[in-house]
Amino acid sequence: MIDLVIEARRKNLGNFEVGRVLPFHAHRMVGPFTFLDHMGPATFQPGFAKDADVRPHPHIGLSTLTYLFQGEITHRDSVGSLAVIKPNEVNWMTAGSGITHSERFEGLRANGGRMDGMQAWIALPQEYEEIDPSFTHHEGPADLPYYEEGGLKARLIAGEAFGAKSNVPVYSPLFYVHWELEPGTVAALPAEYAERAAYVAEGRVEVGDRELTTAQMAVFAPGDTVVFKAIERSTVMLLGGEPIGPRFIEWNFVSSSKDRIEQAKADWRAGRMKLPDLDHDEFIPLPEGPPPPAPPMS
């Protein structure tokens, strides 16, 4: 039932830590999901330094999906979007041929508070890799179907699952679901997609004869219904979909073509992906020196 358990690796992004789940050397993608970070949890005091913010940086060939449990983030991008995301809301940004954006903790800097959330990169199918960049914000049950029964609360963040469909404009078959489970609650993930995984953001759950705890992700074998039982109050993120073929990933770029990534790097260094007034702040430079190995992701 469980093929692999991945432990989130803590990564320091300056003044802010994330738990890096994907990519993982032994299993680099789950469906089209190429990247998964757990942002926090962390508590900020009012007036904290701006180096916790994510300065303007580029993407190609993917969509980013930001979803929060607590806190808020201010998003700005080079197609003119300005949006503040709050808990149980979705920011969906499609980079396509190229976009630049920043993520700021402006509300938390003013008032203090707790930050806890997830960010995913979802690779675009090859025929959509060069579409025009775009951004949409989604909130409420009309966009993000919500279900509650007994000890289970469930929200469909993106894609289709459990007979429901999110209004987030995805480009390939996938699902992304937020579960809240009270102790003793039993819930099942059907065998609807070829690739499936579950990340425990908080708590402990049983899956078959295995126990998963905070900051662990289980990757499941195809073809079986997966039954979960909450040992304690738990937050679980379900994700997956149909595979879309191998991908290269380097820095903030994802593509089916290594040459396309080299082109994007050259464009960023030359200033062709930057809008000077995006945030009235400096942009993140491309790392210097020889790039790390970038094998195809599969």
From TrEMBL:
<dbReference type="InterPro" id="IPR008778">
    <property type="entry name" value="Pirin_C_dom"/>
</dbReference>
<feature type="binding site">
    <location>
        <position position="101"/>
    </location>
    <ligand>
        <name>Fe cation</name>
    </ligand>
</feature>
<dbReference type="InterPro" id="IPR012093">
    <property type="entry name" value="Pirin"/>
</dbReference>
<dbReference type="Pfam" id="PF05726">
    <property type="entry name" value="Pirin_C"/>
</dbReference>
<dbReference type="InterPro" id="IPR014710">
    <property type="entry name" value="RmlC-like_jellyroll"/>
</dbReference>
<feature type="region of interest" description="Disordered">
    <location>
        <begin position="279"/>
        <end position="298"/>
    </location>
</feature>
<feature type="compositionally biased region" description="Pro residues">
    <location>
        <begin position="287"/>
        <end position="298"/>
    </location>
</feature>
<protein>
    <submittedName>
        <fullName>Pirin domain protein</fullName>
    </submittedName>
</protein>
<feature type="domain" description="Pirin N-terminal">
    <location>
        <begin position="17"/>
        <end position="122"/>
    </location>
</feature>
<keyword id="KW-0408">Iron</keyword>
<comment type="similarity">
    <text>Belongs to the pirin family.</text>
</comment>
<dbReference type="InterPro" id="IPR003829">
    <property type="entry name" value="Pirin_N_dom"/>
</dbReference>
<feature type="binding site">
    <location>
        <position position="103"/>
    </location>
    <ligand>
        <name>Fe cation</name>
    </ligand>
</feature>
<feature type="domain" description="Pirin C-terminal">
    <location>
        <begin position="176"/>
        <end position="273"/>
    </location>
</feature>
<feature type="binding site">
    <location>
        <position position="59"/>
    </location>
    <ligand>
        <name>Fe cation</name>
    </ligand>
</feature>
<dbReference type="Pfam" id="PF02678">
    <property type="entry name" value="Pirin"/>
</dbReference>
<dbReference type="GO" id="GO:0046872">
    <property type="term" value="F:metal ion binding"/>
</dbReference>
<dbReference type="InterPro" id="IPR011051">
    <property type="entry name" value="RmlC_Cupin_sf"/>
</dbReference>
<keyword id="KW-0479">Metal-binding</keyword>
<feature type="binding site">
    <location>
        <position position="57"/>
    </location>
    <ligand>
        <name>Fe cation</name>
    </ligand>
</feature>
